[in-house]
């Protein structure tokens, strides 16, 4: 059967019959090469009839298409890529794409009248890898909408009207990228994301998130990038990020965070941490313990007046630290910091009092050295520990008592820690 079809096709082609594919290029479109049809900005209100069934790529961007029916794409069974962005789509009939079993990429973005998608809208798209639904006005998604998309790897739902994380993500086990940026989501439930076991990049930036249930991220064992920037997050409970063992980049900038406790303690692969533009006034002294890969730390635009002793001392990979726009008090509590900066090989920005020029230290607003006694915090224990887990390395072995020996030297102070880690200073 298969061979017979090929045979007939060949005969027809040789005889120069009606199989000249270029002939079927709609007049308002460009077809080059033949299977790639560009009908973008062609003023189309409906799909042109003459589109060849062999078409592989069809660009219908920026037209006036309004309704797609089950017949619209029925014959285009070879289609790999379909762009329908920037149209006036209001309704996608259930089964619109059912013949497009080879489609890999579908762009429906910028259809601002698209508000609701029926459960069977995407039925048949068994090989779809990338789906763009950004910049529409979707406010509700049927729980089974994506259950027909077993191959989906990238889903963009940015800039819509969603107020909650839809239930519809339950069968997307191949999904690696998900954007829900610029919606109106307020909460992340414990089960909202639980089936997204392949997810690498999760973008929740610019929502109104203020509640995240503990355990919301525990199943995201492959997540590498988590963007929670520009939300209303105020609390960071210690268990919040449990499970994110692979996360490399965490965005928490522009939230309402006031304290950093032990929330980051198990993020052993964290390299970039954005905490700028919050209201952080206190950081636990072991907040960043075990973050052996931390490379980039952004703490600008907070409410920090000092940093706890040794906060950065055991971060071997730290290269960039941003500290500007904080109400720093360069007093005794920050002695450790002055000496740490002398050893630090990376770039440090924004804590000016730590950088007096060599011959002029009058800018230093430190108190008289005799006022500096050993602050009680020096003896504090690692508050984070590795509580309840066996994955984190143990806290550093307790060191001997700490002595602070203060010497005046052109109002420059040297304090010395008399223990095994003297070399760090
Ligand atoms: C196919 O179409 C092209 C361009 O329209 C034309 O130049 C060519 O002669 C046609 N070939 C046949 C066999 O009709
Ligand atoms: C489709 O057309 C739009 C212009 O309307 C263009 O910006 C876009 O790059 C095209 N897409 C592809 C894949 O060629
Ligand atoms: C689809 O192809 C059939 C023949 O196989 C044809 O009769 C029909 O008009 C085509 N439909 C569209 C929408 O092109
Ligand atoms: C888009 O569709 C709506 C009806 O759904 C219509 O009122 C409007 O004129 C259309 N806009 C364009 C540019 O075609
Ligand atoms: C998820 O997919 C499985 C098969 O892979 C199917 O049995 C199940 O019904 C689907 N669940 C939903 C909610 O669609
Ligand atoms: C900044 O921190 C101080 C305590 O260090 C607190 O009294 C003040 O209210 C904080 N300001 C803001 C805007 O959070
Ligand atoms: C030392 O710094 C102060 C304030 O920054 C400045 O006014 C003064 O001229 C400087 N003195 C010298 C000797 O550079």
TrEMBL record:
The keyword Transmembrane applies. InterPro entries: Cys-rich_flank_reg_C, Leu-rich_rpt, Leu-rich_rpt_typical-subtyp, LRR_5, LRR_dom_sf. It is found in: Cell membrane. SUPFAM superfamilies: L domain-like. Residues 1-18 form the signal peptide. Keywords: Cell membrane, Leucine-rich repeat, Membrane, Repeat, Signal, Transmembrane, Transmembrane helix. Its main location: membrane. One of its GO terms (cellular component) is plasma membrane. It holds the Pfam family LRR_5. It comes from the Eukaryota. PANTHER family: IG(IMMUNOGLOBULIN) AND LRR(LEUCINE RICH REPEAT) DOMAINS (PTHR24366), LEUCINE RICH REPEAT CONTAINING 53 (PTHR24366:SF96). This is LRRCT domain-containing protein. It comes from Callipepla squamata (Scaled quail).
């Amino acid at each position: 059967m298969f061979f017979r079809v090929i045979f007939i096709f060949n005969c027809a082609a040789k005889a120069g019959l009606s199989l000249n594919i270029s002939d079927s290029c709609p007049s308002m479109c460009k077809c080059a090469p033949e299977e790639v049809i560009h009908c973008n900005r062609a003023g189309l209100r409906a799909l042109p009839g003459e589109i060849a069934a062999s078409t592989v790529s069809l660009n219908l961007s920026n037209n006036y298409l309004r309704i797609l029916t089950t017949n619209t794409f029925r014959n285009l069974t070879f289609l790999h890529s379909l762009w329908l962005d920037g149209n006036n789509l209001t309704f996608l009939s259930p089964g619109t794409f059912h013949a497009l079993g080879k489609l890999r990429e579908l762009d429906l973005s910028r259809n601002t009248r698209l508000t609701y998608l029926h459960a069977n809208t995407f039925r048949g798209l068994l090989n779809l890898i990338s789906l763009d639904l950004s910049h529409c006005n979707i406010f509700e998604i049927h729980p089974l909408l994506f259950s027909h998309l077993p191959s989906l790897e990238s889903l963009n739902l940015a800039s819509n009207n969603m107020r909650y994380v839809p239930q519809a993500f339950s069968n997307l086990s191949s999904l690696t990228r998900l954007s829900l940026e610029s919606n109106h989501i307020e909460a992340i439930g414990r089960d909202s994301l639980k089936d997204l076991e392949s997810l690498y990049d999760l973008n929740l930036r610019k929502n109104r998130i203020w509640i995240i249930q503990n355990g919301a991220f525990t199943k995201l064992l492959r997540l590498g990038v988590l963007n929670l920037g520009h939300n209303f997050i105020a609390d960071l409970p210690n268990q919040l990020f449990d499970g994110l063992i692979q996360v490399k980049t965490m965005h928490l900038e522009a939230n309402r965070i006031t304290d950093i406790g032990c929330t980051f303690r198990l993020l052993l692969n964290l390299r970039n941490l954005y905490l700028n533009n919050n209201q952080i006034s206190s950081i636990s002294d072991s907040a960043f313990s075990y973050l052996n890969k931390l490379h980039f730390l952004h703490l600008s635009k907070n409410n920090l007046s000092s940093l706890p002793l040794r906060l950065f001392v055991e971060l071997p990979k730290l290269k960039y630290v941003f500290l500007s726009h904080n109400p720093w008090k360069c007093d005794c509590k920050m002695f450790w910091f002055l000496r740490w900066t002398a050893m630090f090989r990376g770039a440090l920005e924004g804590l000016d009092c730590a950088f007096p020029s060599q011959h002029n230290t009058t800018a230093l607003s430190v108190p008289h050295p005799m006022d500096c006694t050993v602050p009680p915090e020096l003896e504090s224990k690692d508050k984070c520990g590795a509580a309840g887990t066996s994955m984190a390395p143990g806290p550093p072995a307790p060191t001997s008592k700490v002595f602070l020996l203060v010497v005046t030297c052109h109002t420059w102070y040297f304090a010395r820690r008399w223990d095994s880690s003297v070399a760090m200073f």
